[in-house]
Inverse folding.
């Protein structure tokens, strides 16, 4: 293995930029979902009756009407965006362990380049998505290739010593935070530029109102590909690579690993991320329903969350992980998650609301890198990619089902009950993690 002391800082900078560019390209579509729905669903009722997409959207509109929200179309749009996001996360759930295992077998750099190239292809397809189904193909390709985060995480594990593993994983979180702040902002800005307004004849070639945004994402991916090819060293020498073939259905062993610690951590992370992804999905509804936030104010709210997330992972995790360890930070992250969800359920004034959001940002900022490091530290050197792929797959599976369950609870029972249930869900993850800590302490005492 490469010496962490020599290659670590340089490689971490490369991984940081790689993930940042990936996440900007991924999240750039978020603010465009309302316009995408408006563009692809025909306004003319006679034409709409012939549209398969319209028939698929109809149940969402009926659900939106049951919510008694004053703007059912807005609810339909958000649910539509949630389904597209769930499709993307489902594919990541399937593919993250596969890419991780392939990187254990063939090396990190080669697999990372393949997935970045695949993302570039997905953006190219989006640029020429003249109808909705071509857009779906683009999202499917992107979801399959988006599982490369497990490879990037394995690279971090390769080049960081055990005592600095959590600090290294925090780099992944910082890249996520910055990407999710800048991506939607760039997407909202570029969404103003519609090539069809200047060259309407290009519609015959699949050019759409979002082509400029798609081409910018394509540009970022190509820059990323060149950057990785020219700058990233291979971090997994052939001597320590796995000699077993990648297992296509590895994700179905998510909670059945022979290492009970890995099994329990994956389960805790899955429960926590189910609650967290549900909160992400319904948070804008909460802000609009209770405080009448505008679209701009909702955007600023996520910038506020991103700021505390970056502070937590860029400073708190890196400073305190060597002193307190991954287990303590994970426990505290889950505990603050319980408090944050309960505070959000009771937040009827802006002061408590923003305090709760800050606590929530601290929670995910502590929990995600600390649990990632714990999984990595419990895995053998030759299976880092596969194990971290399974861990990321747990998060992707949670992001597949979390928003759907949260939406049903929110619209059926209201924000107070749904966020209180989120607090209970995180409490279950906390209790499960506590049992893991007790078992480890009892084993240590027996050994001594």
């Amino acid at each position: 293995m490469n010496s962490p002391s020599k290659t670590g800082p340089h490689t971490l900078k490369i991984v940081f930029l790689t993930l940042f560019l990936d996440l900007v390209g991924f999240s750039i579509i978020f603010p465009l979902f309302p316009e995408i729905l408006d563009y692809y669903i025909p306004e003319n009722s006679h034409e709409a009756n012939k549209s398969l997409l319209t028939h698929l959207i109809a149940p969402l509109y009926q659900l939106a009407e049951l919510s008694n929200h004053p703007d059912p179309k807005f609810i339909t749009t958000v649910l539509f965006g949630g389904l597209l996001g769930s499709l993307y996360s489902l594919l990541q759930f399937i593919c993250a362990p596969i890419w991780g295992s392939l990187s254990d077998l063939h090396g990190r750099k080669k697999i990372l380049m393949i997935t970045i190239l695949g993302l570039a292809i997905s953006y190219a397809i989006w640029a020429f998505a003249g109808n909705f189904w071509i857009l779906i193909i683009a999202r499917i390709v992107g979801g399959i290739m988006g599982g490369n985060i497990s490879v990037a995480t394995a690279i971090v594990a390769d080049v960081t010593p055990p005592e600095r593993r959590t600090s290294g994983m925090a780099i992944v979180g910082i890249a996520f935070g910055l990407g999710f702040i800048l991506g939607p902002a760039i997407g909202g800005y570029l969404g103003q530029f519609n090539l069809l307004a200047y060259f309407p004849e290009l519609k015959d070639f699949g050019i759409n109102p979002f082509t400029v945004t798609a081409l910018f994402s394509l540009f970022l991916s190509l820059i990323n590909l060149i950057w990785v090819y020219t700058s990233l060293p291979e971090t997994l020498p052939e001597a320590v690579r796995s000699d077993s073939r990648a297992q296509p259905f590895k994700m179905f062993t998510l909670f059945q690993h022979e290492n009970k610690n890995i099994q329990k951590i994956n389960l805790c992370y899955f429960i926590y991320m189910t609650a967290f992804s549900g909160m992400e999905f319904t948070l804008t509804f909460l802000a609009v329903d209770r405080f009448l936030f505008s679209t701009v104010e909702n955007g600023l709210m996520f910038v506020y969350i991103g700021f505390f997330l970056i502070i937590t992972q860029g400073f708190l995790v890196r400073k305190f992980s060597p002193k307190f360890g991954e287990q303590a930070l994970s426990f505290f992250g889950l505990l603050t998650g319980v408090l944050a969800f309960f505070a959000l359920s009771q937040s009827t004034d802006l002061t408590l609301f923003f305090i709760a959001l800050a606590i929530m940002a601290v929670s995910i900022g502590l929990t995600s890198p600390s649990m990632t490091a714990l999984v990595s530290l419990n895995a053998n050197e030759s299976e880092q990619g596969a194990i971290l792929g399974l861990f990321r797959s747990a998060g992707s599976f949670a992001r597949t089902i979390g928003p759907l369950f949260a939406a049903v609870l929110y619209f059926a029972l209201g924000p107070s009950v749904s966020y209180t249930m989120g607090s209970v869900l995180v409490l279950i993850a906390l209790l499960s993690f506590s049992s893991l800590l007790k078992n480890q302490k009892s084993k240590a005492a027996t050994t001594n």
The radius of gyration is 22 Å. Residues 295-346 form the longest helix (52 residues).
